[in-house]
Write a structure and sequence with these properties.
By secondary structure, the chain is α/β, with parallel strands linked by helices. The chain is built from eleven helices and 16 strands. α4 packs across α9 and α6 packs across α8. The protein is globular.
Length: 445
């Protein structure tokens, strides 16, 4: 855990908060200064205290050391601010702290608060997947509050993106699936969202899990809600975000009870192409020069083509060859610095990554017979709008309604660059215009 420090718990009447932003980590740091105490937090990570080795405040100078995490900070007061640096391990960064009223907090104004404006119930599934693993899945069905107890609603089953996530698809304190479920309930639409296997209340083997196995989980949850008394089976569809946007049409090709598909930032290009497009877009959005970006992309193309079973030494040889002549700083800028060979080998050797790189949407999008809504953010840096739009429209031309939304990123937030570095500090969780398009389209099915 980095940057989360707690120095002295006592507060005084003459105290002041200061907030600084670390550009290298994307995290806020908060200092609370009292007459005889100093308090330092990393509130975007945790509120848990970490023992501090020493701190010293003399005149305009403030120093802090925490040996347990290898952190040192040295600051000098200038007018109303404190400026200096913090250092942890090999990382060192200049930072300025500005006066603040209180500790920095991430605001998520769209997150619904109890009492909710919808009803909800728990849906569970126990089944054996194609690998023989016992799987237990648990989710929440939300549906509108209504005086008509017997009413059945259109329903959307939601599938999360890559990485194990809970039923809210929660990341960085954003809860996009909860926000979407709340909005759709207000429009008369039910939603089933569930914890991925291995997260929350869901259980299942992850050692050899990949996109196709997660599609089995999604279909199991879809089948579980078909007979629910609050769901109209004639208006039951499946949708997903990112990887979930690939899984949803997979399920639709083999399950004719799927009446519609919603792809949110879903891919149309092959997995390896998506990863290359993503690499280029993210580093470009972060301001990397064309010359350095060309090095990164040439190296990634070769790394993605490495045969399974290549050694760490093989990966390092590729990286060293492409980065020959670059400075240490330049290598770090393009993510090809020291230690990256081991990280790439671990990631690229995984079953999930091998499956994703080989994934070809032509295998399933051409077979979907029900209507498809595909939404994409114009500034999405993870699944790039233009090439994936072109591929999806070509593969599912008869059934797809595709719309690119301006100034939205991969999470459907209004953004500046679209880089994932922005996700945490953007207060909006899900753009209202995107949610409205989803609701309008489902209600017109």
């Amino acid at each position: 855990m980095s940057l989360a420090l707690l120095l002295s718990m006592s507060l005084t009447a003459h105290s002041q908060w200061y907030t600084g932003m670390s550009q290298k980590t994307g995290l806020a740091l908060c200092i609370h200064l009292g007459d005889s105490s100093v308090l330092l937090y990393s509130p975007m990570q945790t509120s848990a205290p970490i023992p501090v080795s020493s701190w010293n405040r003399e005149g305009d100078n403030l120093s802090i050391e925490c040996k347990s995490i290898g952190l040192k900070m040295s600051l000098t007061q200038r007018d109303s601010t404190y400026s200096g640096y913090w250092k942890q391990g090999l990382m060192k960064e200049n930072i300025t702290f500005f006066p603040d009223d209180t500790i920095f907090q991430l605001r998520r104004p769209q997150t619904p608060q109890q009492p909710y404006r919808f009803e909800e119930e728990t849906i569970t599934v126990d089944y054996t997947d194609s690998q023989g693993n016992l799987v237990h899945l648990e989710g929440t069905l939300t549906y509108p509050r209504s005086s008509d107890a017997g009413r059945r609603y259109p329903c959307l089953v939601l599938v999360s993106g890559s990485g194990q996530q809970n039923r809210d698809e929660e990341l960085m304190q954003h809860k996009p699936f909860l926000v979407l479920a709340d909005y759709l309930a207000s429009r008369g639409i039910a939603v089933l969202r569930y914890d991925d296997r291995g997260v929350g209340a869901s259980k299942g083997n992850l050692d050899s899990a990949d996109t196709r196995l997660f599609a089995e989980d999604a279909e199991a949850m879809f089948n579980a809600v078909k007979g629910n008394i609050h769901v109209n089976p004639a208006q039951l569809g499946i949708g997903g975000h990112s990887e979930g946007g690939a899984i949803a049409p997979m399920v639709a090709t083999r399950n004719k009870d799927v009446k519609f598909v919603v792809m949110l930032a879903g891919q149309g290009c092959k997995g390896q192409e998506v990863m290359l497009q993503q690499n280029e877009a993210i580093f470009r959005a972060n301001g990397v020069s064309d010359s350095l970006l060309a090095v990164r992309m040439a190296c990634m193309r070769e790394l993605f083509g490495m045969p399974l079973g290549s050694t760490q030494k093989d990966y390092k040889a590729v990286i060293d060859r492409h980065t020959e002549g670059l400075t240490k700083e330049q290598k770090e800028i393009i993510g090809l610095g020291r230690g990256t060979a081991a990280a790439f080998k671990q990631q690229l050797d995984s079953r999930w990554m091998q499956t994703f790189l080989a994934l070809d949407p032509a295998e399933y999008l051409t077979q979907v017979s029900c209507p498809i809504l595909a939404l994409q953010g114009a500034k999405d840096c993870q699944v790039i709008a233009e090439p994936n739009k072109k591929a999806i429209v070509k593969l599912a031309s008869k059934n797809v309604h595709y719309k690119v939304l301006e100034n939205l990123n991969h999470l459907f937030q209004h953004c500046t660059t679209g880089s994932p570095d922005e996700y945490m500090l953007i207060e909006e969780t899900f753009a209202p215009e995107a949610m409205k398009i989803i609701a309008d389209w489902i209600l017109n099915k």
